[in-house]
Design a protein that fits this description.
mainly alpha
């Protein structure tokens, strides 16, 4: 069994399948490491968030930070993908309640519907 520290570098691998397997591995280990979601976000920023939105389907239980949640909310407002809306909403719904209640992340301005 690989340790999370051994898998994390693969989250930003240039090959999409490698990134997906890394996220899947960490998600299935129920890891609450706060460093995982920022790496997933970094990967999506580096390669293409729409292409990598499949990573988010497996990343719903990773620990969120204020910065990470703010990024997800910005992407939610800009996306035209119904799948991405679903993934982002799932991540937001799993975020720490105190983080959401603080409003500092921009949560109070988020749009949770998809207009086609």
């Amino acid at each position: 069994m690989l340790l999370p520290e051994e898998v994390k570098p693969f989250l930003c691998n240039e090959e999409k399948i490698v990134r997906e397997h890394a996220v899947n591995y960490l998600a299935n280990s129920f890891n609450r490491d706060a460093d995982i979601m920022p790496l997933v976000i970094e990967s999506c920023q580096k390669y293409d968030e729409q292409e990598s939105s499949s990573l988010f389907s497996m990343a719903t239980h990773f620990t969120q930070s204020e910065t990470g949640l703010h990024t997800i909310l910005e992407w939610l407002e800009k996306t035209n993908s119904i799948n991405a809306v679903s993934f982002y909403n799932n991540i937001i719904s799993q975020a720490d309640l105190d983080l959401l209640k603080s409003g500092r992340s921009g949560f109070t301005k988020a749009a949770f519907t998809f207009d086609s």
